[in-house]
């Protein structure tokens, strides 16, 4: 199952205005916005963040998709399997408290350089 999708945009104000309007009829709302260094991160969802835009990198450069898992062991297995299949490490399995107290994730770059994540939200 898809947990969330992230896109990098060239103009965060323009994209925020666009997505505020375009996603509202679908029931999505702006859930959170915060600075991340010199960048801005804007999170949309119905109940929790599912779609994220940021102006951290050039458009297309750091787009990513996150797959939701039921257990932390699945996150660990995803990371190991992805590396064995030729993926490049982009952040080993572990807690990411800046994303949430139980946010356990691992990140890899696929063969084309896309950032792929597996995440478990359950408290172990």
Automatic annotation (TrEMBL):
<feature type="domain" description="VOC">
    <location>
        <begin position="1"/>
        <end position="121"/>
    </location>
</feature>
<dbReference type="GO" id="GO:0051213">
    <property type="term" value="F:dioxygenase activity"/>
</dbReference>
<keyword id="KW-0223">Dioxygenase</keyword>
<dbReference type="InterPro" id="IPR004360">
    <property type="entry name" value="Glyas_Fos-R_dOase_dom"/>
</dbReference>
<keyword id="KW-0456">Lyase</keyword>
<dbReference type="InterPro" id="IPR029068">
    <property type="entry name" value="Glyas_Bleomycin-R_OHBP_Dase"/>
</dbReference>
<dbReference type="GO" id="GO:0016829">
    <property type="term" value="F:lyase activity"/>
</dbReference>
<dbReference type="Pfam" id="PF00903">
    <property type="entry name" value="Glyoxalase"/>
</dbReference>
<protein>
    <submittedName>
        <fullName>Catechol 2,3-dioxygenase-like lactoylglutathione lyase family enzyme</fullName>
    </submittedName>
</protein>
<dbReference type="InterPro" id="IPR037523">
    <property type="entry name" value="VOC_core"/>
</dbReference>
<keyword id="KW-0560">Oxidoreductase</keyword>
């Amino acid at each position: 199952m898809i947990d969330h999708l992230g896109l990098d945009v060239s103009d965060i104000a323009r994209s925020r205005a666009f997505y505020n309007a375009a996603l509202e009829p679908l029931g999505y709302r702006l859930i959170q916005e915060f600075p991340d260094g010199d960048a801005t991160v804007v999170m949309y969802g119905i109940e929790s963040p599912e779609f994220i835009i940021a102006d951290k990198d050039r458009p297309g450069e750091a787009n990513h998709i996150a797959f939701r898992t039921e257990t932390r062991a699945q996150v660990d297995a995803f990371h190991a399997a992805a590396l064995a299949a030729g993926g490049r490490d982009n952040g080993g399995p572990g807690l990411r408290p800046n994303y949430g107290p139980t946010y356990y994730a691992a990140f890899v770059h696929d063969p084309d350089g896309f950032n792929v994540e597996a995440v478990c939200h359950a408290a172990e």
